[in-house]
Description:
mainly alpha
Amino acid sequence: MAGKWTEYSDEQLLEMLKKTIEDMGMTKYPSRTELQKHIGDYDIPSPTSYLYRFDCSWQELMERIDYGYDLEELYSEVNRENAEERMTENTGKKKENVRWRDESRKEIVEAIIENMRKDHIITFTEYKERRDRETTPSAATLSRKNIKWSEIKNEYKARYG
């Protein structure tokens, strides 16, 4: 920990860290990565500097400022979130690659042409950037189905000029 931070006592640095974590609203499970992302917004040493100064892990540092991780709770919360996400995936909308897997080439081309017409899309690059992700397949799906952009564009021109 070089520079001005050597002038501060351990207690002062720990208090600064604790206050910053509170200001950022990360009191439940303070994230070293999130703190590092926003370190420029606060006048404190980097998370790595703290670890060097106190010669400890992030978890140990958090325990020193009374933000210890309850690993059992943390893992059960992560597992619960993952389970909820899996349930949503299984009962909600199909993933894109699954959704378009069984559609015919004609239906895929039709969906893209409608999106092109509605959003004034001309090029494949525009399609990839601006397509309606809810109602049209991805570029990867087109590749898997061996549908060429020229085929789509020719069909569009035949219909709408």
